Amino acid sequence: MPTREVSARIDFEVTEATELEFQIAVAHRRGVLVEEELTFTANGRDVAATEFAASHGGRIHVLRDVAPTSGTAWYRARIEVQDGRDDAGTAGATADLHDRSLYLRPSRYVPVDRFYPFAASEFGTADPIPAERPYETAAAVTSWVAKRMAYLPVSDSHTDAADTLLASAGVCRDQAHLVIALLRALNVPARFVAVYAPGCDPMDFHAVAEALGPDGWRVYDPTGLAPRNSLVRIATGRDAADTAFLDNHGGSLNLTGTTITATVPGALPADDPAERVRLP
Amino acid sequence: MPTREVSARIDFEVTEATELEFQIAVAHRRGVLVEEELTFTANGRDVAATEFAASHGGRIHVLRDVAPTSGTAWYRARIEVQDGRDDAGTAGATADLHDRSLYLRPSRYVPVDRFYPFAASEFGTADPIPAERPYETAAAVTSWVAKRMAYLPVSDSHTDAADTLLASAGVCRDQAHLVIALLRALNVPARFVAVYAPGCDPMDFHAVAEALGPDGWRVYDPTGLAPRNSLVRIATGRDAADTAFLDNHGGSLNLTGTTITATVPGALPADDPAERVRLP
Amino acid sequence: MPTREVSARIDFEVTEATELEFQIAVAHRRGVLVEEELTFTANGRDVAATEFAASHGGRIHVLRDVAPTSGTAWYRARIEVQDGRDDAGTAGATADLHDRSLYLRPSRYVPVDRFYPFAASEFGTADPIPAERPYETAAAVTSWVAKRMAYLPVSDSHTDAADTLLASAGVCRDQAHLVIALLRALNVPARFVAVYAPGCDPMDFHAVAEALGPDGWRVYDPTGLAPRNSLVRIATGRDAADTAFLDNHGGSLNLTGTTITATVPGALPADDPAERVRLP
Amino acid sequence: MPTREVSARIDFEVTEATELEFQIAVAHRRGVLVEEELTFTANGRDVAATEFAASHGGRIHVLRDVAPTSGTAWYRARIEVQDGRDDAGTAGATADLHDRSLYLRPSRYVPVDRFYPFAASEFGTADPIPAERPYETAAAVTSWVAKRMAYLPVSDSHTDAADTLLASAGVCRDQAHLVIALLRALNVPARFVAVYAPGCDPMDFHAVAEALGPDGWRVYDPTGLAPRNSLVRIATGRDAADTAFLDNHGGSLNLTGTTITATVPGALPADDPAERVRLP
């Protein structure tokens, strides 16, 4: 797979002392080589962040006790995917059981407890049943969401998948939440991934869904904004509550600018919707 | 149209002094003859209720300052519909404008503001547009709701039409709310009617939707529990908030029994879903 | 009471054929003299609106079949309040019963069914009980809302009083909804009024709450943005769903400008929070 | 600390083939000795469950491909707490950062994103700020919730902490969610624990909140149904979505009986609300 180059620059202004968490560094994953640079400045000086591990290779960088000031987070990485092997075979049955259990549960933006009847009514009558053919079900759900949703910034930090179903519109995050809600309701484990997305236009942080089947996790994107096989994983979790690129605990903050880049050498690869794509 | 006979007996126990409102008497409507009896007893004695007019011929009977006691409301009526003429011609254009405005608005259990995109996505692409053929649209929406909803008591006093869409289930009140929400979202004025329903099984108070078109209001019932042309109108409003058969203001109350009857002489008439039925 | 002069200019652009409803004309009320001018233009020409009566003297002006075009609504009025007599005495007991029943019910933005326990827990333990001293209760609730809410534009067309309670912020419409929700939950009938508000800064359409007590309706405004005794009633209803200054049925529309004025001659009167003010 | 003895018997009837997950076994925790027995029977025979690890020592037992049948889960354990040492010192700073990040996030039943303004308005004005004295804040919030909530079964599987705030009532699960929501909103990490609770009356599975401070996690219980220092941890997570004692994936199931026991030898210890209690 090709090399990808990504970067993020986040300018912020702390107006009341706070603690900041960043999820902008590429996840540590088997067979993914990352050469990277990450710096934080506040008040014109470099400041040190503490890194700790989030789930599925994700990494969180925290700046504690940030006094009111302006600052910048700057990240740059060159990624090479050396090894296409799947998690499924290596991680083994117990990890699968854990993930299967976790990613069927309701979460903040994916209240699957409210979706069972609607999902059954819309998708559930097929034979074999949806959960027995998870990848086909994920493709069908993704296509349904793609067809019904307008890509529009109508959501806010309270918008969950039930709101998005009614709104029939949303950005990448909302559409991924709706795919995940319908899949979990059909008994297909599904999770949320924040990614760098070469080809995304306008370029920004992007978000997609992953569904778990017999061969492991596969990636689905109802927005079709970027080819799936060039995506670079940042953070993985139940929904957007787990993957915010910037979290602010206790104080106040304004974002004054974000610039994201993500490229592959040469032309972007095509994305065949019928293909099952694994996100390393 | 045939004679109908209806009755309601409501036994209650006031546990904290309160004011009670009943909407159990048949509405006063043009061409509808009602011979009726209505008595209230509390603590073993007859008590007097005050009647006042609600919208569209509805009548509310209020008992003020009811001390803790057990009581009964007893209603019995014989209804003859003498005159099938429509409201539309008689009430005239201004009443139509008023109703049209009122019954397109969002209400407690019909938050139509949340339904526009979903309704457009599910029904809105037809030509001519749904609002230009209101009765056909009402029939199509009713049929869609009937097909997707299970008749199950999954709702409570907070359940609105958006909840019902996700639950894919509800009782008559919930299904009527969902029909009304979709219709208003498609720009077809729609309202809620509490009725006596000969043939309803199990027998109980029933609720249906009405849609406004060029010939006036027509009645739609996704539950199909009773033939529409035998229904008897009690209360009419925006949604179930306007038609509760018993409202309690300020104190506490237990219902200890309700018995409803509604009959027509001879066999029940058939209900052809394709027919447009006016509810007197 | 002093003369008031008000005006509203609303510029709009219809992008898809629609029907428009305006509620910008001052309500017809006993003892209120209105000298006014109201014109609508579309595509550079005068167009005729149809007026019909809304509740409590409100008037709705409707433009049917407005083709895509730019247009303007222009209203100007001079109001004199000749007569301070109350509705209560004149309208009589039956109207009171009707209003009392109507304005205790849940409505779209005032889901009082969800507020009973919270209101009881926050306000309900007093003796005499809140419903027996409605004006004192309304003053206490208004003061509580004023203290807890920031005046911030955090709401949208889906925001109800429960959302506002959590958000602890909102504009006049939201704060009025929260006052009304708490009052209805305490068994005090309460309604929503859209008004012209001399002194409001920034000048805009304004909204307040009214509470019903033994002397009739009295007006409460948690925002304190304008003296209550200079307000001019436009529309009255259950909540903002009944009083939108512009409703669009079926098509699409952009607002391109609104300019509101409202003045009294000389200095604004003071508003003593302890005073009970009747809005004519 | 005293020995505790606990047991759970869960009888169920599978009506459509499914996969079952049980969280009824006591968590594996440092210094907690557990001697236990766990058996599953279906259709009269013993069946084998697969155990996998959940977070914080929790254990999930899964029965896959359970055909329609009646069955029983039977668990019995004797617990001795040998070692009162805290996690905080041993687990170290990185684990703390991880937990701190995780348990400030919004989750399904704890939509903290909706609680910031309300919590700030109710608790936030103190000096020092609430997050700087997490245990005092947790005690204050617990006491506030205890005072405002009735212990009533008014909730269902969709009820979140915002619903509970309005309802002013709920069972242990709901009250714990509300405590957690207010704490996270005040920047105090908080999580949900399902426990065996000697002394609980009526005896059932119980749920409490934990708050993170400089000395580690401490337990808070607004219901006061059982002394905190006798609780036995089963499952720990963001909210009740992570700790269901029985989850059903894909099929249908009826619970036909649950019997829980939990005892300590001799008299129950007293629970001093002012004491900070660590749950092993």
UniProtKB/TrEMBL annotation, chains A, B, C, D:
Residues 164-224 form the Transglutaminase-like domain. Pfam families: Transglut_core. Coiled coil: none annotated. It comes from the Bacteria. InterPro entries: Papain-like_cys_pep_sf, Transglutaminase-like. It comes from Rhodococcus rhodnii LMG 5362. Transmembrane segments: none annotated. SMART domains: TGc. This is Transglutaminase-like domain-containing protein.
